[in-house]
Amino acid sequence: MFLTKAALLVLACFFLSNAFYTSAATVNLDWKIEYTSVTRLCHTKSLISVNGQFPGPTVYVTEGDTVIVNVTNLVSNNVTIHWHGVRQLLSAWADGPVYITQCPIQTGQSYVHQFQVTGQRGTLFWHAHISWLRATLYGAFIIQPKQGASYPFSSPTTDFPIVLGEWWNANVEDIIAEALDSGGGYNISDALTINGQPGDLYNCSQQDTVTFNVTQGKTYLLRVINAAVNFQLYFGVTGHNLTVVEADAEYTKPYNTPYIVLAPGQTTNVLLTANQTVGQYYMAASVFSPAPIGPVPFPQTATTAILNYVVSSSNTNSTSNTTTSLGQLPTFPAYNDLQSVETFFGALRSQSYSKGY
Ligand SMILES: *[C@@H]1O[C@H](CO)[C@@H](O)[C@H](O)[C@H]1NC(C)=O
Ligand SMILES: *[C@@H]1O[C@H](CO)[C@@H](O)[C@H](O)[C@H]1NC(C)=O
Ligand SMILES: *[C@@H]1O[C@H](CO)[C@@H](O)[C@H](O)[C@H]1NC(C)=O
Ligand SMILES: *[C@@H]1O[C@H](CO)[C@@H](O)[C@H](O)[C@H]1NC(C)=O
Ligand SMILES: *[C@@H]1O[C@H](CO)[C@@H](O)[C@H](O)[C@H]1NC(C)=O
Ligand SMILES: *[C@@H]1O[C@H](CO)[C@@H](O)[C@H](O)[C@H]1NC(C)=O
Ligand SMILES: *[C@@H]1O[C@H](CO)[C@@H](O)[C@H](O)[C@H]1NC(C)=O
Ligand SMILES: *[C@@H]1O[C@H](CO)[C@@H](O)[C@H](O)[C@H]1NC(C)=O
Ligand SMILES: *[C@@H]1O[C@H](CO)[C@@H](O)[C@H](O)[C@H]1NC(C)=O
Ligand SMILES: [Cu+2]
């Protein structure tokens, strides 16, 4: 078939305009809320998951996309799923808080969430929004910049979702039911976790410690999410400063800091440049608990993961991937050091911040 130049031009314009102006896509997800067997700390339990995954699936969307999620409840509990931080413009009924915007999805039923992600880009997350099911039903929700838009910082080599959580050996619904019955405090979690793993300071966990592989000289975007049920957390990486570039899906003025702090529900994107000596470094999170009335119990052991410098075989400076033992944990302020935490949060600035408040 022969096409005139004019016809070719029309076709080219059609494809180009599609590429640039109608790039918004529909992300269809089919989620089954179901039991899955998971072992941590040498305890195996049947927990409530999305599609048998713990932590749950990471959702990747591009700003402007429409998300359609068919959630089907195959467990005996009532369930809802909340898109934490998504603005839900004109789609409040898709938001998920139980008895606020919807009745629970009962056993055997489905609910289809449909919403457009607009005016936001960065890291958010999703989790259950009924009773304590969020302890095991959670995952990252990542909004890529629109096609053609770039980050307001130099593009990282890659990004790593880092989802902080809590693990109970017992059934979490028993934990909250017992606390409500007695009127007392709840049993604190048995471990803090990074991407569902307690890390090597906990019993029975060392083999499964999460490892993030990096190449010396490259810069990485860490998408840190506090999906813990109750605790505020410090997060840092030994020997590396972090540059905060986004919080709760809003870009910030770049800000250099040795550690970050997140309350449950908060997310923070940081850049990390792997410019230290080739080796392995601890990534860790531990509790910030400033209660003035005296110590509230909390898990005392930090959750850890490993930042692992991988040496390419063409790098003649190093002959092998290191096997040196991990050094120290990152240094955090004291568990109740409110002043340091105020300093951290007080230094956050929006991109448009110029002077004053
Ligand atoms: C949602 O999933 C359920 C269970 O697979 C199915 O029966 C139902 O038709 C789906 N709903 C839509 C709108 O696709
Ligand atoms: C589940 O939700 C239904 C509808 O709101 C409610 O009638 C029922 O009591 C709930 N079940 C439990 C165990 O909370
Ligand atoms: C909470 O901890 C107490 C004391 O260890 C224990 O007896 C109880 O069984 C725990 N509750 C649950 C629901 O696991
Ligand atoms: C590991 O197990 C020992 C023996 O049961 C216990 O004393 C210790 O507290 C456990 N460590 C952690 C981090 O839970
Ligand atoms: C990191 O690299 C090691 C080998 O050095 C490999 O065994 C491991 O699977 C890698 N981890 C990830 C998450 O890719
Ligand atoms: C981290 O930043 C502090 C303050 O800007 C600086 O003193 C320190 O040398 C930096 N550490 C690294 C590993 O870059
Ligand atoms: C490592 O990178 C950070 C962030 O770009 C920078 O602040 C720091 O000075 C660098 N350190 C070295 C030793 O090059
Ligand atoms: C080897 O080390 C030299 C000097 O520190 C550095 O300039 C060079 O980039 C390194 N080569 C590689 C492949 O990392
Ligand atoms: C280090 O590990 C990486 C990933 O497993 C591998 O590609 C590379 O060849 C290894 N380098 C050396 C020097 O053994
Ligand atoms: Cu939430």
TrEMBL record:
Pfam families: Cu-oxidase, Cu-oxidase_3
GO molecular function terms attached to this record: copper ion binding; hydroquinone:oxygen oxidoreductase activity
EC numbers on record: 1.10.3.2
Gene3D superfamilies reported in the protein's UniProt record: Cupredoxins - blue copper proteins
Any one biological process term the GO annotation gives: lignin catabolic process
Compartments where found: Secreted, Extracellular space, Apoplast
Residue intervals of the Plastocyanin-like domain: 33-147, 159-309
Catalysed reactions, semicolon-separated: 4 hydroquinone + O2 = 4 benzosemiquinone + 2 H2O
Signal peptide start and end residues: 1-19
Keywords: Apoplast, Copper, Lignin degradation, Oxidoreductase, Repeat, Secreted, Signal
Entries under SUPFAM superfamilies matching the protein: Cupredoxins (SSF49503)
Keyword Oxidoreductase included in the entry's annotation: yes
Keyword Phosphoprotein carried by entry: no
Record family assignment: Belongs to the multicopper oxidase family.
Designated name of the protein: laccase
